[in-house]
Automatic annotation (TrEMBL):
CDD domains: ThiL
Organism name: Parasediminibacterium paludis
Top EC group: transferase
Pfam families: AIRS (PF00586)
Amino acids binding Mg(2+) 4: 39, 53, 84
Involved pathway(s): Cofactor biosynthesis; thiamine diphosphate biosynthesis; thiamine diphosphate from thiamine phosphate: step 1/1
Function: Catalyzes the ATP-dependent phosphorylation of thiamine-monophosphate (TMP) to form thiamine-pyrophosphate (TPP), the active form of vitamin B1.
Residues where Mg(2+) 2 binds: 55, 84
Keyword Kinase: yes
Binding residue positions for Mg(2+) 1: 54-55, 132
Protein name listed in UniProt: Thiamine-monophosphate kinase
Gene designation per UniProt: thiL
Length: 345
């Protein structure tokens, strides 16, 4: 397809567009009994339990199209939902995708967005089984629902951590926030002086963390292969400190977290210093890392030491102890939820 082709959505109409966007996608899961094309889809998880989650992505709130390629946006819209399914220790099987957009979008633009959706589906073995398509007066609105399966009562909640459990985080945290800080800075410079080209040299890691997060399927597979069942779990969308407080509040416990144990990538640390930010603050309050935060019984410690993708950052305590953060200098502070909140500007 030529770069300059612009096909108006009106040339296809709503039903033509849906057919165009979905016709080449085949379903792969046995649980997908009926897919796109009827009043509803039908799924059958053959005795397993069904896990379901949904998240909205709103232009200007969750993403900025000035620096977000549509293919990446499609991919990320799916990933943030799959991340919630993995956070239940479940396997994603189907998604629905609903979109609303203004006439500033062409068929080619939506094709790009769906390319990203399909790449994410392929990678995680998920079927697209339906959705909805509408117009919006202003802005691109995306709503994805993900469905998954889990063996009966094997899902992992936020509320079941026990005193003494180890608190663990997968991968590294803070990078996506630094990617966002960089993109917002470059956008500002560009708007002030459009002749200046964005300077993203050497910043691929943090930009990648923002634009193409990876839901941690590998961690769930590692648990299954090593007979590990976390005592509680959730994904890191709003920032580590905010998520730890959710685990503590819902489990009626306190915690001790150690600054020196926070997994921060070198590229993120360097970027933080460049922007005059504290890497620890970025890791605790940044958000959009889409890593898993979970608690484990102490006797499982040996099973995870060999996995370099898992860091132990602290442990759960009695509720009376409060939620505490110990700095590298040995000072102790209460943890506050300074994570992302769509209603706080
Ligand atoms: N408008 C709503 N109506 C009903 N339930 C909601 C609504 N918004 C959020 N929830 C529910 O509240 C819980 C927490 O949501 P949220 O903080 O968005 O979690 P996550 O970070 O996993 O997306 C979830 O169970 C979610 O389904
Ligand atoms: C334009 C823009 N503004 C702000 C952000 C930062 N941001 C967007 S969503 C989000 C966190 C998660 O969003 P939320 O809607 O709370 O997801 P949920 O917790 O429901 O999964 C963050 C930090 C961004 N990526 N782009
Ligand atoms: Mg949500």
């Amino acid at each position: 397809m030529s770069e300059n082709t612009r096909t108006e959505i009106s040339s296809l109409g709503e039903f033509g567009l849906i057919e165009h966007l979905t016709k080449n996608f085949e379903t792969h899961n046995a649980s997908t009994v009926l897919s796109v094309g009827d009043d509803a889809a039908v799924i059958d998880h053959f005795g397993k339990q069904t896990v379901i989650t949904t998240d909205l992505l709103i232009e200007g709130i969750h993403f900025d199209l000035m620096y977000t390629p549509l293919k990446h946006l499609g991919y990320k819209s799916v990933m943030v939902n799959l991340s919630d399914i993995y956070a239940m220790n479940a396997t994603p099987t189907q998604i629905t995708v609903s979109v609303a957009f203004s006439n500033r979008f062409s068929v080619e633009a939506l094709d790009e967005f769906y390319e990203g959706i399909y790449v994410a589906c392929e990678k995680h073995g998920v079927d697209l089984i339906g959705g909805d398509t509408s117009s919006s007066q202003k802005g691109f609105i995306i709503s994805v629902t993900a469905i998954g399966e889990v063996a009966p009562d094997k899902f992992v909640k936020r509320s079941t951590a026990q005193k003494g459990d180890l608190i663990c985080v997968s991968g590294d945290v803070g990078g996506a926030f630094l990617g966002l800080t960089l993109m917002e800075r470059e956008k500002r410079i560009y708007l002030e002086n459009p002749q200046i080209q964005p300077d993203l040299e050497g910043e691929d890691y943090i930009v990648g963390r923002l634009l193409k997060p990876e839901a941690r399927k590998d961690i769930i597979e590692f648990f299954a292969a090593n007979d590990i069942v976390p005592t509680s779990m959730m994904d890191v969308s709003d920032g580590v400190s905010s998520e730890i407080l959710h685990l503590c509040r819902q489990s009626n416990l306190g915690c001790n977290i150690y600054e020196e144990k926070l997994p921060i990538h070198d590229a993120a640390r360097k970027a933080a210093f460049k922007f005059g930010l504290d890497p620890t603050v970025c890791a605790l309050s940044g958000g959009e890392d889409y890593e898993l935060i979970f608690t484990l019984k102490q006797e499982d410690y040996d099973k995870i030491t060999l996995n370099e993708e898992i860091a132990v950052i602290g442990y759960m305590t009695d509720i009376e102890e409060g939620c505490k953060f110990q700095t590298k200098g040995g000072n102790t502070h209460p943890i506050t939820a300074q994570g992302w909140n769509a209603f706080v500007k």
